[in-house]
Every structure is written in structure tokens, then in C-alpha cells.
Design brief:
alpha+beta; 55% helix; Arc Repressor Mutant, subunit A; 15 helices
Length: 326
């Protein structure tokens, strides 16, 4: 255990520095007169006298000097308990004062409407504001992704975040998978870089939650398209609700890839095919995305079904997920 500095400990309890130092000298060298204490402590006579008076008031030395002027230290237990309680009370008062001051500040800010808990972003300002929030992430990004897409939304931002160690969990809508080039150029490269991706049949809103500090959300998919408006929400009740919405959709969505993958390897095209099937994408859209004919698509589905023992497409998607192919 580290050596305890008695003088410092007494000072923290509220005793003056010179009085605390004098008491420590008495404990180390024994009883002494005021003159001897001045020599031991290096303090001036009037400073020693004042320190002795403070120690007497605190009950740490004898209250009356003996005939020979010797000052004797007294057991500190009772006074230390009192000093400790007083110090605790002072800290509590300080904490209350600071808290009250902040609450008054917060109420004033809210009363003037300057807290900007919800910021409305429209038109051309959406892209830069979204990128600003996205690149400010330090720990995690949670996102519900669906068209329409803004020009700035590039996979490079996702790569940079993943490289910096930012966790990314994204739920893509079925429309995301059929958007030209989205699966091949954006989703699959991001997954390879470490993104955790899932797919859901529908996404109610476009949403990006950055750390625990801000969320960017559309009113709805339709309103994003019509009004070209999004909201930036600071931590508040609405922010908490948006977090809950994301987690609910995340739990219900189907993973693209399982990191505990089965040892059986799939062709990249087959893995993409399974992801599209799991997302409920139509045959026509899947064939177009993969660049194959419907006949080739049906044949690949039959082969994959035979490998897994699936008789329906639902079973195929379910068994592929269990096997670790998604």
C-alpha cells in the first residue's frame, strides 16, 4: 500500500495547510512547544500559533498548554468523522449548485427554442449534411437503407469508416437490391470490408443513426421522393424511438452473410442469387441483376435447392441461412 501523506489527507478534509503540516510534524516527532514546532515546520512564530489555534479548535491537540508549554496531539477519530461529514456536505452543496445552474441553462435554451433538437434539411443541403454526419462517426453507424439515393452516397465513405474501426449495421430494403449497381458496387464490397448487412422486404424510412449523438431520418420513403426533406434529430424521446425502430427491423431482417460460414463454398453469383431470393426480389429482377436468362435462373435455383434438400424457395432461403451461405 502506498504511504499516506497525513498532511495532504487532512487538507482534503478541510483543515488548513499549515495546521495539517503542524499536526503531521507532531505525530512524527512527538510533543513539542510552539518554539520547537516553529523550528520543525520552518514556519514563522505567528503562523505556528495560528496553526496551533486551528488544531485546538479541531480537537486534534490538547486545548490547554501544560506548564512547560508542551503541545500534545490527541486521537483524531471523532474529529475526523466530523470533518469527513462536513466535507461531504460541502461537496453535495457544490454538486447541487452546479446541477441547478446547468438545469437553469438548459431550461433557458429550450424556452428560446435554440436547442435545435430537430433540424429540417431540404433540397441540395441533404447530401452534404448527410455526409457530414456519416463521416463524423466514431463508434457505430446504424442505418435503414432504401432508394431514392442522393448523389453523395458513395461506398468510399463506408470503407473509410470501417477502416477506422467504426461498426456498421445496415438493413437494406428489397428495392435496394434491385437498384442498378447497388448490390455489386456498394453492398457486396462493404460486406467484404466488415459491414454487417441484412435485408428486409420493406423499409419504412431512410434512417442513419450516428453513434448516440444524432439521427438523420425521412418522414417516409414516399415523402423523401416528393418533398426532398429529411430531419436531423438530436438525443431526445424521438431519437430513442428511432433507435428502437432500427433494432426491431434489424432483428426481423435476414442476414446477407454469416461469418460462421459453412466449409462448402458457393460461387459468388450463387451467393448473390440467394441474397436476392431471401429479399423477396422478383424472378425478372433477379435475372436482370445477375445478367442471366430466366431459364438459367430456374436451373440454378433447382441445383441449390437439391444441394440443401429444399422443396420451396422459402425453405431454400431458410436452409441457406442456417448453413451459413447467407
Amino acid at each position: 500500500m502506498a504511504a499516506v501523506n497525513v498532511s495532504e489527507a487532512l487538507s482534503q478534509l478541510g483543515l488548513g495547510n499549515e495546521a495539517a503540516r503542524t499536526y503531521q510534524v507532531l505525530l512524527a516527532g512527538g510533543a513539542a512547544s510552539l518554539e520547537e514546532l516553529a523550528k520543525r515546520t520552518g514556519l514563522a512564530a505567528d503562523a505556528v500559533t495560528a496553526a496551533h489555534r486551528e488544531l485546538v479548535d479541531a480537537g486534534l491537540v490538547n486545548t490547554l498548554e501544560a506548564a512547560d508549554g508542551v503541545i500534545v496531539p490527541l486521537p483524531p477519530q471523532a474529529i475526523l468523522e466530523i470533518l469527513g461529514r462536513l466535507r461531504t456536505a460541502e461537496i453535495d452543496e457544490s454538486r447541487l449548485a452546479v446541477t441547478s445552474a446547468f438545469e437553469a441553462f438548459r431550461r433557458q435554451r429550450m424556452a428560446t427554442g435554440s436547442d435545435n433538437l430537430v433540424e429540417v434539411v431540404t433540397g441540395a443541403a441533404i447530401g452534404p449534411r448527410m455526409r457530414q454526419l456519416y463521416t463524423s462517426a466514431r463508434h457505430r453507424i446504424r442505418q435503414l437503407d432504401s432508394p431514392p439515393y442522393y448523389p453523395h452516397e458513395a461506398v468510399q465513405d463506408a470503407f473509410e469508416n470501417l477502416t477506422r474501426g467504426v461498426e456498421q449495421r445496415i438493413v437494406y430494403s428489397r428495392e435496394s437490391l434491385t437498384h442498378p449497381g447497388k448490390l455489386h458496387d456498394d453492398i457486396e464490397p462493404s460486406i467484404k470490408a466488415g459491414e454487417q448487412a441484412r435485408v428486409a422486404p420493406e423499409i419504412p424510412v431512410k434512417l442513419i443513426i450516428v453513434d448516440d449523438s444524432a439521427a438523420m431520418v425521412s418522414f417516409s420513403i414516399r415523402e423523401v421522393d416528393v418533398f426532398n426533406t429529411m430531419l436531423v434529430v438530436q438525443p431526445c424521446g424521438l431519437f430513442t424511438a428511432l433507435e428502437a425502430l432500427f433494432e426491431h427491423i434489424w432483428r426481423a431482417a435476414l442476414p446477407f452473410h454469416d461469418r460462421e460460414a459453412d466449409s462448402q463454398r458457393l460461387l459468388a453469383q450463387d451467393r448473390r442469387l440467394l441474397a436476392l431470393l431471401a429479399g423477396g426480389v422478383s424472378d425478372e429482377a433477379i435475372a436482370h441483376e445477375l445478367g442471366v436468362s430466366r431459364r438459367t435462373l430456374y436451373r440454378r435455383v433447382e441445383i441449390l435447392g437439391a444441394r440443401l434438400g429444399a422443396s420451396t424457395r422459402f425453405q431454400l432461403a431458410l436452409l441457406a441461412q442456417r448453413r451459413g451461405w447467407l
